[in-house]
Amino acid sequence: MKERRDRYLDGLEAYRVGGAVRDARLGWPVTDTDWVVVGATPAQMRRRGFRPVGRDFPVFLHPETHEEYALARTERKSGHGYTGFVVHASPEVTLEEDLARRDLTINAMAETPEGDFVDPYGGLDDLEARVLRHVSPAFVEDPLRVLRTARFLARYAGLGFTIADETLALMRELSESGELAHLVAERVWAETEKALGEPRPTVYFRVLDECGALAVLLPELARDTEALRAALVRLDRLPEGLASNERRRWRWARLVEHLDADSRDAIAERLRLPRAYRDLMRQAALTRWLRAQPGPTPAAVNDWLDGIDAWRRSERVAPLLALLELEAPGLADRLARAWREVSRLSPRTLVEEGFTGGALGDELARRRRAILGQVLDQS
């Protein structure tokens, strides 16, 4: 990864760190590049044109590339959760001390702009052995590392990676210590949402279950082993042609579709789920319910269409029918024909016939059920 000397870095001891170093050696796409600067002060960085952006510790944006440059720092545990640390950044902090605070050895490698490699904790050996291993016993000081390690395995499991036994033991220790309860909802969800976008998201939830973290963070999923196993099997049974952001939402919806409404609501409130995730998991649960109904009857189909707000949000119907196609293709075909017919009925037609107010709504519902009944009876 040789590159021309950056004039803004002349005289600075700067190192590329973390994911960019790791992924370049794995042949994985490098999306972000972060840097550590050793021996500098905030004043020196500002004089060179770097713009400060860090709130909790000194981080600066490069004047041209806008990549992040953090001053070397150490951390000392001072409280609960991932924020319970006292950060010390000064020109005396060495690169090795900065790297020592990182979670995994494969994330504790560095290199200079000229490509000189620094690996004080054996990250390259673990990278080649396909092992996720903690840098030091200080791993247990940050409960977020349980989720991050599970997420990294969800990303790299296809390359043959595993979690070192001693690291998994520390993850269990963290799960049993009560520290996970101090993680704020936004960080738990941020890691989970990222994991839903990884190549093997099921691995994330399996690891959390194996180390005991799932029972703390998502007890509704962890309490029924068989139901969880079935949920993970269907996690990637999705409608075709989804964009990456849609795929994350659909994976989440499939994961929790078997839960009752109270459990889904509890998870949504605890994790402060975005509206799009809440809506889709409810629609998937309603579709699962419809699949379980005998027949199903025109009234049940009408309730399903009402429940997913199909009359105002008709774009929701096709992907949910595609989901049904995966689980119950015959039913999906019948419902597709029923939807085509019933969606042709326009409320304007009834208004022109003189219906208004409550009578309009009642007649619209009656005719919709009648159309659904006709089509379903013919199927």
Written account of the structure:
The chain is an alpha+beta fold and 379 residues long. It folds into 3 domains: 121 residues, Beta Polymerase, domain 2; 163 residues, cca-adding enzyme, domain 2 (Orthogonal Bundle); 85 residues, no CATH class. Helix content is 53%, strand content 10%. It has 19 helices and 11 strands. A 7-stranded mixed β-sheet has the order 3-4-5-2-1-8-9. The radius of gyration is 27 Å and the shape is elongated. Its cofactor is Mg(2+). Its EC number is 2.7.7.72. This is CCA-adding enzyme. InterPro entries: CCA_bact (IPR012006), NT_sf (IPR043519), PolA_pol_head_dom (IPR002646), PolyA_RNA-bd (IPR032828), tRNA_CCA-adding_enzyme (IPR050124). Belongs to the tRNA nucleotidyltransferase/poly(A) polymerase family. Bacterial CCA-adding enzyme type 2 subfamily.
Assess the beta-strand content as a share of residues: 5-15%
The structure class reads alpha+beta
Low-pLDDT regions? none
SSE order: EHEHEEEEEHEEHEHEHHHHHHHHHHHHHH
The CATH homologous superfamily of the largest domain is termed cca-adding enzyme, domain 2
Report the strand count. Answer: 11
**Rg value:** 27 Å
- Main sheet: strands, sense, barrel: 7 strands, mixed
Report the CATH topology name of the largest domain. Answer: cca-adding enzyme, domain 2
Number of domains: 3
The rounded distance between the terminal residues' Cα atoms is 63 Å
Binding site for ATP: 19, 22, 102, 148, 151
GO biological process, one term: RNA repair
Domain Poly A polymerase head: 14-133
Binding site for Mg(2+): 32, 34
